[in-house]
Fold:
Amino acid sequence: MELQLLLLFMILGAIVAVEIEDLLSSVIAVGAVGLGLSLVFLILKAPDLAITQLVVEILCLIILIRATIKKDLPLIRDGRWLFNTFSTFLFIALFLIFAYFALKELPNFGAPIMRVAKEYIESGLEKTGATNLVAAIILDFRGYDTLGEATILFTAVMGVLAVMRKVGRINGK
Amino acid sequence: MGNKETGMTLIVKTITRLTVGLILLYGIYIVLHGHLSPGGGFAGGVIIALSFIHLMLAFGKDTALKKLSQTVASVLESLGALMFLSIALLGFSGGYFFFNFFLHKGRPFELFSAGIIPLCNIAISLKVGAGLFAIFAVLVLSKKSGNEK
Amino acid sequence: MSTYLLCLVLFCIGLYCVLRKRNIIKIIIGLGIIEYAVNLFFVLIGYQIHGRAPILAKDQVISNMVDPLPQALVLTSIVIGLAVTALIVAIAIRIYEKYGTFDISKIRRLRG
Structure:
């Protein structure tokens, strides 16, 4: 019951963020959606994810606000507006119909089939010695994925530092 | 133009002086207890980066860059990545990638337990924290140069 | 079943924002909403009713835990989403400095 209410709050916040014209207000609405998501993670019994989502959301808000301050731009609509909007809604309706048929094949909500996770839960403590099972999974059973993610973070930092360089290579100004 | 006041008002500066050390300590606590309670390397690294960003937002960029300059941040990030990779490659002498052979598992619910997992958490937190602070420092510095046009 | 459908409606709102808006910052906001919806869908699949968090406690035998495997995957995905958002915001700032506008229908000159 609380889960559906929080999901409705997130959908409302997302609609506000998409439709409003002022850039600063829509960034704040996205922040509200992220905080609602952190509460939903707590209800779904995932405390690791709630902590990480909360702090990452705050950092994402700071970076977005820095990009939008003093650069407000009014949106205009012209051209083939009616045809574009109609075809987008048609596509989204088709997507939701096919998704409904696909979601009927999944197991019921609240009764997952845990084939691999059963072995992780039963033998996690004696194989690794850690009591936080999620940390044991990401650093011991599936450490290779964490290595890939460290590489992605490194590449992103290098990309930002290279894009924001002041002196170009060709012109030198 | 003799105004040397950068950053925010006096109230914000006083509160920042009181709380920025506590935020850094809380981040280090979450990293070190990553194998006993929820958290881990990623969340702790982001909290450590947020404490330095808080310092930069309240006092202006010169004071924050004196505490942690851009060169030191780059070196720390590379050091974290190399530490994580070398812990993984050391497992080759035991037989597999990421093999846990030189630190024993210990007793559960203690701080020094669970093999290489605390070392990996510390390496990841160094990398994430220093990298995110370097991203933010570059984004803010470029704004100051583009604002005078 | 209705929870899954609400999560997919959130995904469709983000998709509409990416397809139809002309401001680059609105497109970045739409990408952020898509990423929240996908992470939520993963964690919803692994939930068990009356389950407990996947952390062991002292001197207790916990028999019904929620699935810890999707939580490990989503933990990685949240931090990757932050890195991608930072990179795309840096590119957007550069575009504004070069072209003077955020409108994507006016940024058409690709030099080969």
In short: The CA atoms of residues 22 and 105 of chain C lie 7 Å apart. Chain C is about 65% helix and 0% strand. Residues 68-99 of chain C form the longest helix (32 residues). The two ends of chain C are 49 Å apart (CA to CA).
